[in-house]
Amino acid sequence: MKNDWESARESLSKVKVVSNPKNEPVTIFGGSEGLRCVGVGTDAAVFQSVLAPSYAFKVYAEDKASKIKTEAGVYELLEESPYFSRCFAVTEHYLVLSYEEGPTLFDCLLQGIHIPQQVIDDVEEAREYVRERGLNPRDIHLKNILFQDGRARIIDVSEYVLPGDDLRWEHLKNAYDEYYHLMDGRPVPFWLLETIRKWYHQRRSYFSSFEEFKRFVLKYTTFKR
Q1: What is the rounded distance in angstroms from the CA atom of residue 45 to the CA atom of residue 118?
Q2: CA–CA separation, 130 and 83 (whole Å)
Q3: Interior CA angle at 124 toward 119 and 125, to 5°?
Q4: Are 18 and 61 in contact (CB under 8 A)?
Q5: Rounded CA gap, 195 and 27, in Å?
Q6: Which residues, 6 or more positions from 194, have their beta carbon under 8 angstroms from its beta carbon?
Q7: CA 90 – CA 78 distance, rounded (Å)
Q8: Number of neighbouring beta carbons within 10 Å of residue 193
Q9: Which end of the chain has less Cβ packing within 10 Å, N or C?
């Protein structure tokens, strides 16, 4: 594709992304008409421009800029895949990716949108594909998976060069298998999802195992058998 994404350069130059401590989402300063934020993470924010709507621009915080080339390298190794975005260009401050439609699984829980087993199976297949490319599929969570035409699309690959298994996907899959039927089709309040997220990140300080954490969450939420 030609570099028609460059029409968004000027508006992107008016945006500044700043990271925050304790693994909290970044803060965005500035902005431009025709530029909207479509996603926020702990290292970067993602924007879409009306001038180049088929692209997503992942703008990194200045102190996280070293990750840009690393993530671009991951996309290069992944090549074209039905499970991931495509990377079209790399600049000093951002990646130019294919814009992907669809709610995240986090949004699906908020809105009570049914998440079919096919999505879980797709992520499992995507993880196997990542391993076949010599990478490590980690940091896969509710906000990194899109529900797109009944299938899964993973939109953040920045940690696939890191070692170790953070177990985030394994824990999500386990929770889906055991407890999703309790909330399927029911909107989950934002405050509850955020509370569970924070409990999860602090679980090692208060719980001896993931099983104990799950029992605690079930006890203190409205989802009962």
Answers
A1: 28
A2: 10
A3: 95
A4: yes
A5: 20
A6: none
A7: 16
A8: 14
A9: C
| Of the candidates 99, 76, 90, the residue with the CA atom closest to the CA atom of residue 160 | 76
Q: Which DSSP state fits 22? A: T
pTM above 0.90, yes or no: no
User: Which CATH architecture does the domain made up of 4-98 adopt?
Assistant: 2-Layer Sandwich (3.30)
The domain limits of the chain are 4-98, 105-219
Strand partners for 46: 39, 58
The overall longest dimension of the chain from CA atoms, in Å, is: 54
> What are the pLDDT tens digits along the chain (225 aa)?
447 899 999 999 999 999 999 878 999 999 888 999 999 989 999 999 999 999 999 999 999 999 999 999 999 999 989 999 999 999 999 999 999 999 999 999 999 999 999 999 999 999 999 999 999 999 999 999 999 999 999 999 999 999 999 999 999 999 999 999 989 999 999 998 988 888 888 888 888 888 888 888 887 776 554
Tokens of 49: 């421009």
- Residue 151, burial from CB neighbour count under 10 angstroms (0-12, 13-18, 19+): middle
